[in-house]
Amino acid sequence: MLDSWHDGPAKSAVVEFVGRVLESVPPEERVAVFDNDGTLWCEKPAYIQLDFLVRRIAEQVAAEPGLADKQPYTAAAAGDLSWFGDAVTKHYNGDDSDLKVLAAAVLSANATITTDEHAARVNAFFADARHPVLDRPYTACGYTPMVELLLYLESSGFTNYIVSGGGRDFMRPVTTMMYGIPPERVIGSSVGLIYQNGELLTTAQPEFLNDGPVKPVRIWSRVGRRPIFAAGNSNGDIEMLQYTTAGSRPSLALLIHHDDADREFAYDAGAERALDLAVSHGWTRTSMRDDWRTVFSG
Amino acid sequence: MLDSWHDGPAKSAVVEFVGRVLESVPPEERVAVFDNDGTLWCEKPAYIQLDFLVRRIAEQVAAEPGLADKQPYTAAAAGDLSWFGDAVTKHYNGDDSDLKVLAAAVLSANATITTDEHAARVNAFFADARHPVLDRPYTACGYTPMVELLLYLESSGFTNYIVSGGGRDFMRPVTTMMYGIPPERVIGSSVGLIYQNGELLTTAQPEFLNDGPVKPVRIWSRVGRRPIFAAGNSNGDIEMLQYTTAGSRPSLALLIHHDDADREFAYDAGAERALDLAVSHGWTRTSMRDDWRTVFSG
After folding, report:
1. Strands B199-208 and B186-196
2. Mean of the per-residue pLDDT values for chain B?
3. Are A195 and B243 inside 8 Å of each other by CB?
């Protein structure tokens, strides 16, 4: 167990925590929650879901060439991923104009199809899409030490949930295979669905953006219990980590630090507050460089 | 198994269905969904949750007597439950004025408390509230044949969910004890929650009214699979029953008919369309009078 973790403070903290849980927490209360992007799988140079969406937007342009006159279709058709990255950068600099254009296109990219058809599109994407830098299938971009941690917790009677800002129905088709987490334990962002003649159809209406303070709310909605273990890597995970450690049970908050430019990526952007809070709140920080023997397998 | 069911077409249909499922449906696809009010427990002469809410509203009047000048506080303080029933009747007759007044009071009755405090109020209610007609604790108002059915399905590898128009967090504290269904498998109506300093607080904002076409949407959101078994008793369950039987797997839709004035209540109001559709769609109708050997235990 945890063979891909170096012996060190992070591994010790986890093992010691699980020991206390086995002594004092009944199995039904052993709820563990994991962010996905940057916590269970790689999120750089761009969210995996963004690749899925840009490919779909490019398909839309191919089917309706007139779309190419406007963004983000122009960029998608040209394979210009920098436009998408710039939209997010502009947002963080206070200019939301491109982000709004992007959001409208993203929300409508997979609208008015059944949930089965949506799953088929996701499966088709994962069947052949590869990570542009790591040169491996996206389905092999899960972090080996975190998959081991999921198994370790599960073998200790925990029930693991994914609680991600990513799309709930984008993750579901692959989480069982990658993490052993079935669809009913995937909590994520979503669009509204409508029921029609025995089928559920996607819409372009946002339902939940599962980030920040929304994470604990959705955890309660879905699980009805306060977790005792939480893992995250960014500012969007702060409230989930706080909520997890504010209960009366033994608890552990794990923050992944992306400091391994050789084997993955090194970046603190979007995680600055979380990294600071880890120190003041006694969260367990994990250095990918120092704590992980391997990052990816296979 | 199913000892409190008479041998007959309803019991045979269930047993035959489970036999086919065991042969052809993998365990992870064996999802069963149950309405609660009128399907798993008694809903007459009024929803159990209404009693909980009226008692709370009376408490609010006791703490702030000026409230008694307006409805529904006047009625709650006087113990006048007919006002509440009339508000619903008026609604069905096209006059929503009283229902709006009622809804606002209901939504705010348990607002701005933590989820733990809310659970404590629910537990306090169930600890001593009794059914006004059946003269038994509300927690003993579950239908014995349905509890047996839950166990029978579970022992056949099914995972059971409650999918109710009732309040999610009103049901959760008692569903494990009454039905063996844990909080994470209770889908119901809800108010919005807000995260604050490690706690989740209730609000007076409606989030989901889990009824009619909303039921299949929330099933997908929570479970990520189409059920293969569904049980309900009213028009609000129609879409859930349709969704369940519209898939390619073997499936069964069970409709409870309240036709037992001696042992429970006899009524079709609010179920007329569902009872008609049961015939045209081949759903299995269960007569409480003819199919159930016992209704309540203990």
Report:
1. antiparallel
2. 96
3. yes
Contact state of A193 with B221 under an 8 Å Cβ cutoff: yes
Is the pLDDT score of A165 beyond 80? yes
- Residues 6 or more apart whose Cβ sits within 8 Å of residue B192: A217, B203, B205, B206, B207
Taking CA atoms, what residue in A is nearest to B173?
A224
| Residues facing A187 on adjacent strands | A163
In the predicted model, is pLDDT for residue B155 greater than 90?
Answer: yes
**Cβ neighbours of residue B194 closer than 8 Å, sequence gap 6 or more:** A213, A217, B200, B201, B203
The per-residue pLDDT for B93 is 83
Tens of pLDDT, residues A184-236:
999 999 999 999 999 999 999 999 999 999 999 999 999 999 999 999 999 99
Spell out which residues of chain A touch residue B220, defining contact as CB-CB under 8 Å.
115, 193, 200
Other CB atoms within 10 Å distance of the CB of residue A241? 27
- pLDDT on residue A92: 79
Strand partners, A37: A41
Q: pLDDT digit string (tens) for A254-270?
A: 999 999 999 999 999 99
In chain B, where does DSSP find H-type helix?
A: 9-24, 48-63, 73-77, 81-92, 97-109, 115-128, 144-155, 168-179, 214-223, 238-245, 272-281, 288-291
Report the distance separating Cα A241 and Cα A254, nearest Å.
8
SS3 at position B261: coil
Residues of chain B contacting residue A119, judged by C-beta atoms under 8 Å apart: none
The residues on A that touch B, with CB distances below 8 Å, are 28, 115, 159, 168-169, 172, 182-184, 186, 190, 192-195, 197-200, 213-214, 216-217, 220-225, 239, 242-243, 245-246
pLDDT tens sequence across B260-296:
999 999 999 999 999 999 999 999 999 999 999 999 9
Does the beta-carbon distance from B190 to A221 stay under 8 Å? yes
User: Reduced to 3 states, what is the DSSP secondary structure of residue B68?
Assistant: helix
Full-prediction pTM beyond 0.90? yes
Best of B217, B225, B248, B277 to mutate (most A CBs within 10 Å, chain A): B217
Residue A298 has pLDDT above 80, yes or no: no
Cβ separation B220–A190 shorter than 8 A: no
Predicted confidence (pLDDT) per residue in A5-49, tens digit: 999 999 999 999 999 999 999 999 999 999 999 999 999 999 999
Q: Which of B118, B114, B97, B112 is nearest to B53 (CA)?
A: B118
B193, B213, B223: residue with CB nearest A183: B223
- Give the span between the Cα atoms of B9 and A237, in whole angstroms: 53
Can you tell me the distance from the alpha carbon of A164 to that of A158, in angstroms, rounded to the nearest whole number? Answer: 19
